[in-house]
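Structure record:
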Amino acid sequence: MHRLFLSAAIVATATSAFAADAPVVLDQQLEQPHISGYGEIYLGGLHFSTPGDDANGTAAGGAARINFPIDARWNIQTDALIDSLWVEGTNIYSYGGAVHG
C-alpha cells in the first residue's frame, strides 16, 4: 500500500515538474538576403512624317539595377542607364547612374 502512494506521489511530482518548465525556443538562423537585380535593353524604330517631309530613326537603350544587402534591413542600390536616338545621321544620347541606400 505504501508503494502505491509512493508511486502516485512520484508520478504526480514528476508530471507537475515537467509542466512548470517553459519550453526553450532557440533563435532560428535567418537566411541572409542575396545580391539581386535586373537588366533590360530595347531597340525600336521611328518614322516621322509631315506634309512634304518624312524621316526615319532608331531608338535603343538599356538599364540595370543591382541591390547589395549590407544588413537585415538595409541595402545599397545601384542604377545605370543609357538611351540613344539616331535620326537622319544625328545622334542624341544620354546616360547616367545613381547609388543610394
